[in-house]
């Protein structure tokens, strides 16, 4: 044991620590609406001590880390104690502390606070030439750099190097450049004549398809001279898909690879110019260069491109593409195209010819009923509508509206086991998650919660979901219920999160709280610090630029992560979209997801289109699913709020108008729905 920290580290007054903690909790209260975590003066003190020790260890020298040992040991019974041990280890990464490091990795195997530690330790050992320790600590799945070092060590002493060289192939066959540490292993692998021309071509293909073209020139030089033209073709087809129209560029000396290049180019060309893709299709058909799967892929791209643009040739190409083995979206778009043109008998024939599992899908069941209704067969349609109306989803709600029945929510409260919930709450990971919640560290809390849930039996996940719900941890409760497979607890899967804020701001901007809550539920599951790949933030997933435009000021990330302010900006944005889209909730929902300018491009030309048909023919799958979900969620929240909802009755009787019938940008159109 080192010299007592009392002699070497300035003590922080308890009053200061508790005050600091209280400020942190108050700040956190603006972010997470949760039930109070267990608290007492002693626990508050430990939280404050943990936070301060964490800061000190993060910037401490080795000498000071040793001086803080007693302070760390004093928190041994605090749930987040292992995080302090991890920090100590990070500051003592050397052979002198090998036993401590390896014991920590063994005792806390794969727990969140160990993430990255084994990799860091192995990199240290490799850098310092500690081969024996490296081999003892290596585990599979450590990434290319560490794996290559492992193979290099094994090859140094291998009596049968072929065993280890066979493990090189999957590392080499990557679509991106691999680290320099792999070069010695790759060299030995190549010298052993284990790098084949087909492997080189396979890697060139991966590099082309994954957007790493800079790798292609390097790989080209590893091909025999007579095959290097294939690397050039991959390089050129990426930037100019119209190359497939130049037959002279494809000598067909390697039909397999050239077929892959042609298929890729034709698919890419189809989305840019379906007419040119059709020319290429007929140009290459006599050469019999495309495999059956490649033909399916190319016809799909042509058919869907034509259908989305509503071209006259779409019907013919959809029939060509809609065959056995085709992707599921081909039949869906085939049906959507027929719906757009109200070819009701063709819709029925399409569904009747589909496999049984397709016919049982709720979308096809709904459109079968709609087709029968449109053809003047209300009794047959009614039977199918009523069967579907028993289901809790968009199509079930729409079916209910078609037969003037109240949609079925089928709420069933989750069976509760206090014993299981207590057992879960006592697990170290649950305690750590709850402590991080108390400290406002949501990312750390979620990391612990995911580890906890993944360690539970499937039957116990619903109990964890109930526990998160009781903590007021909305996003993890929703996610955990989904993982559990218990989806009938409507009240907990659609919690009344931030209902007061949504109500207050909704009243100010004439936006129904249920609508805004449905958007937030779909966007983030009420995760206040959610960040999308595109950079949208917070409960209602707003881009900083959008929030700034709406608020007429610069909006910071902290503001977007504040629940109250995010709701304010999000509801304001809904009002902005309502004004642009004639108060039509379907168009507003689509605009919230895809942008209002794009939605304007999707509006029908010259005539109204029934709302359910327009939704079914939205070009973007994501937006199509989004609109259906938001409409269903809005109905559920109207029910939760005790409001009388006629939402789906309105959707069933309404139509989407042409762009010319909406107000000019910036103005507000009259009327909520266009008449049929």
Topology of this protein?
Elements: H1 5-8, H2 14-29, H3 41-58, H4 62-67, H5 69-73, H6 81-90, H7 98-107, H8 117-127, H9 131-137, H10 144-157, H11 161-165, H12 169-172, H13 183-191, H14 197-209, H15 215-220, H16 228-239, H17 255-272, H18 274-284, H19 292-308, H20 314-321, H21 328-340, H22 344-352, H23 356-359, H24 362-374, H25 378-388, H26 394-402, H27 418-425, H28 428-438, H29 442-455, H30 458-470, H31 474-484, H32 490-493, H33 499-509, H34 513-524, H35 544-551, H36 557-560, H37 563-580, H38 585-594, H39 596-602, E1 609-610, H40 611-616, H41 621-640, H42 647-653, E2 655-656
Antiparallel strand pairs: 1-2
Helix pairs in contact: 2-3, 3-6, 8-9, 14-16, 16-17, 17-18, 17-19, 18-19, 19-20, 19-21, 20-21, 21-22, 22-24, 24-25, 24-26, 25-26, 26-42, 27-30, 28-29, 30-31, 33-34, 33-37, 34-41, 35-37, 37-38, 38-39, 38-41
Name the helicity range.
55-70%
pLDDT averaged residue by residue? 91
Q: Helical region count?
A: 42
Percent in strands: under 5%
Q: Please state the CA-atom Rg, rounded to the nearest Å.
A: 31 Å
Instruction: Please report the total strand number as a whole number.
Output: 2
Shape summary: flat
General description of the model:
The protein is mostly helical and about 675 residues long. It contains 42 helices and two strands. It has a two-stranded antiparallel ribbon. Helix 2 (about 15-30) crosses helix 3 and helix 24 packs parallel to helix 26 (about 395-400). The radius of gyration is 31 Å and the shape is flat. About 40% of the residues are buried.
């Amino acid at each position: 044991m080192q010299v007592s920290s009392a002699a070497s580290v300035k003590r922080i007054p308890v009053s200061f620590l508790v005050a600091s903690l209280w400020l942190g909790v108050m700040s956190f209260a603006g972010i997470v609406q949760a039930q109070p975590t267990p608290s007492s003066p002693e626990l508050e003190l430990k939280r404050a001590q943990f936070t301060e020790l964490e800061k000190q260890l993060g910037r401490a020298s080795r000498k000071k880390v040793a001086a803080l040992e007693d302070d760390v040991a004093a928190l041994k019974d605090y749930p987040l104690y292992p995080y302090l041990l991890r920090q100590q280890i990070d500051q003592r990464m050397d052979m002198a502390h090998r036993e401590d490091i390896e014991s920590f990795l063994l005792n806390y195997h794969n727990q969140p606070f160990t993430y990255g530690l084994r990799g860091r330790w192995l990199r240290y050992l490799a850098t310092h030439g500690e081969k024996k320790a490296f081999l003892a600590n290596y585990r599979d799945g450590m990434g290319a750099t560490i794996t290559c070092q492992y193979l290099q060590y094994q090859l140094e002493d291998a009596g049968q190097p072929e065993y280890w060289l066979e493990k090189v192939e999957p590392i080499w066959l990557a679509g991106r450049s691999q680290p320099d540490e792999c070069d010695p292993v790759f060299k030995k692998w190549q010298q052993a004549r284990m790098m084949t021309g087909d492997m080189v071509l396979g890697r060139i293909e991966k590099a082309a398809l994954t957007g790493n073209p800079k790798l292609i020139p390097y790989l080209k030089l590893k091909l025999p001279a007579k095959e290097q033209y294939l690397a050039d073709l991959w390089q050129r087809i990426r930037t100019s898909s119209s190359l497939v129209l130049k037959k002279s560029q494809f000598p067909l000396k390697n039909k397999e690879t050239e077929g892959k290049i042609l298929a890729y180019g034709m698919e890419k060309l189809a989305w840019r110019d379906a007419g040119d893709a059709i020319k290429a299709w007929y140009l290459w058909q006599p050469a019999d260069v495309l495999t059956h799967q490649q033909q399916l892929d190319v016809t799909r791209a042509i058919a869907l491109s034509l259908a989305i643009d509503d071209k006259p040739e779409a019907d013919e190409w959809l029939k060509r593409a809609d065959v056995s083995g085709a992707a599921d979206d081909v039949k869906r778009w085939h049906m959507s195209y027929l719906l757009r043109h109200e070819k009701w008998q063709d819709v029925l024939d399409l569904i009747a010819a589909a496999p049984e599992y397709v016919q049982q899908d709720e979308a096809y069941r709904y459109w079968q009923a709609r087709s029968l209704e449109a053809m003047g067969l209300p009794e047959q349609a009614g039977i199918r509508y009523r069967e579907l109306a028993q289901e809790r989803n968009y199509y079930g709600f729409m079916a209910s509206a078609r037969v003037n029945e109240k949609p079925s929510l089928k709420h069933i409260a989750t069976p509760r086991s206090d014993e299981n919930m207590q057992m879960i709450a006592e697990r170290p990971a649950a305690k750590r998650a709850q402590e991080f919640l108390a400290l406002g560290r949501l990312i750390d809390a979620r990391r612990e919660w995911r580890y906890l849930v993944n360690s539970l039996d499937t039957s116990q996940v619903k109990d964890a979901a109930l526990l998160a719900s009781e903590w007021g941890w909305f996003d993890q409760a929703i996610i955990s219920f989904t993982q559990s497979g218990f989806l009938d607890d409507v009240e907990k899967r659609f919690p009344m999160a931030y209902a007061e804020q949504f109500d207050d701001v909704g009243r100010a901007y004439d936006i129904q709280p249920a609508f805004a809550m449905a958007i937030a539920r779909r966007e983030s599951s009420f995760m206040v610090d959610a960040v999308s790949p595109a950079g949208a933030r917070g409960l209602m997933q707003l881009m900083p630029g959008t929030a700034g435009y709406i608020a007429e000021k610069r909006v910071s990330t902290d503001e977007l992560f504040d629940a109250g302010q995010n709701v304010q900006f999000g509801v304001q944005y809904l009002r902005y979209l309502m004004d642009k889209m004639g108060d039509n909730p379907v168009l507003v929902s689509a605009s919230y997801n895809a942008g209002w300018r794009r939605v304007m491009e999707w509006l029908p030309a010259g005539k109204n289109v029934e709302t359910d048909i327009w939704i079914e023919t939205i070009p973007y799958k994501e937006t199509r699913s989004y609109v259906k979900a938001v409409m269903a969620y809005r109905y559920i929240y109207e029910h939760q709020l005790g409001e009388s909802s006629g939402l789906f009755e309105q959707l069933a009787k309404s139509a989407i108008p042409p762009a010319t019938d909406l107000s000019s940008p910036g103005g507000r159109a009259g009327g909520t729905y266009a008449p049929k």
